[in-house]
Amino acid sequence: MEIKFEVSRYNPEKDEGSYYQEFSFSIESDELEELTVLDSLIRLKEEKEGSLTFRHSCGHGSCGSCAMLIDGENRLACKTHLKDMVSGEGSRINISPLPGFPVIKDLVVDLESFFSHDRGVKPYLIGDAGSRAKEELQTPEELERIQEVTQCIMCGACTSSCPTYWDNKKYLGPAAFVRAFRWSEDSRDEGESERMDALDDKRGGVWGCNKIFNCTEACPKDIDTVGAIESLKRKALGF
Questions:
Q1: Best exposed site among 59, 105, 125, 183 by fewest CB in 10 Å?
Q2: Which CATH architecture fits 112-236?
Q3: What are the phi and psi torsion angles at 162 (to 5°)?
Q4: C-beta contacts of 125-132 below 8 A and 24+ residues apart
């Protein structure tokens, strides 16, 4: 089966803007069951176009580095299987960089603002460790409260899918809010009031969320991002 790939290309050293380049190669039916979009990009780079640039690392959905826009949806290339994308001979797959972030080259985007927003919510345990005489244990119920959000791999897919973030780059975004929720709900943390300065901000805080649910749909770990944001809103109101 021949599959065509339309891949966004951009080289800042010579291109005025991005454009799509089409590649195609034949895939045996037994290969189709196993190959992912990331496998295909690696093959394209090795066999067709060595200058094609994209991020990838673990290849198993744990690092988040291969997040990109695939057929109009933010996905992890390593977890997107060709068998779920093609419908027959001549099928096309469109691949673009994550929207909402500046493009560095081809499918690689600049995530500095993304990680800057993450740092802004202080995603770590806050408290006086010196006053603790022994290890602080959590009950199963306390762990359950934060278990889901600890699965966030900071791929950027949720924030990149958010219309509020597209319009307002001061908006911290879903990923930062999920991380804030993770630590503010930790039974050992004492830093909720410190984080609330950023979270309760009218321009960049949780009030910018309009509950469109793009972020929840884009999350490769199925985290209820909107639910976490709504919980932070209640905290901001004192509930």
A1: 125
A2: Orthogonal Bundle (1.10)
A3: -90, 120
A4: 125/183, 125/186, 125/188, 125/189, 125/191, 126/183, 126/189, 126/190, 126/191, 126/194, 127/188, 127/189, 127/190, 127/191, 128/190
- Quote the tokens at residue 103: 């493009």
**What is the C-alpha to C-alpha distance for residues 213 and 144, in angstroms, rounded to an integer?**
23
C-alpha angle 185-126-164 in degrees, rounded to nearest 5? 60
Burial class, 124, CB count within 10 angstroms (exposed 0-12 / middle 13-18 / buried 19+): exposed
Q: Of the candidates 205, 226, 207, 206, which has an alpha carbon nearest to the alpha carbon of residue 215?
A: 226
**Residue keyed to tokens 């299987």:** 81
Residue-wise pLDDT tens digits, 8-54 = 999 999 999 999 999 998 888 788 888 999 999 999 999 999 999 99
Q: What is the mean pLDDT of the chain?
A: 94
The answer to whether 153 and 64 are in contact (CB under 8 A) is yes
* Ramachandran angles phi, psi of 95, nearest 5°: -130, 125
Indicate the pTM of the whole model: 0.92
In three-state secondary structure terms, 27 is coil
Q: What is the pLDDT of residues 63-88, one digit of tens each?
A: 999 999 999 999 999 999 999 988 76
Question: What residue spans define the domains of the chain?
Answer: 2-109, 112-236
**Could you say which DSSP state residue 82 is in?**
G
How would CATH label the architecture of 2-109? Roll (3.10)
Q: What is the DSSP string of 34-61?
A: T-BHHHHHHHHHHHT-TT-----SSSSS
Consecutive H or E run containing 105? strand 103-105
**Do 2-109 and 112-236 show the same overall fold?**
no
φ/ψ (deg, to 5) at 27: -130, 130
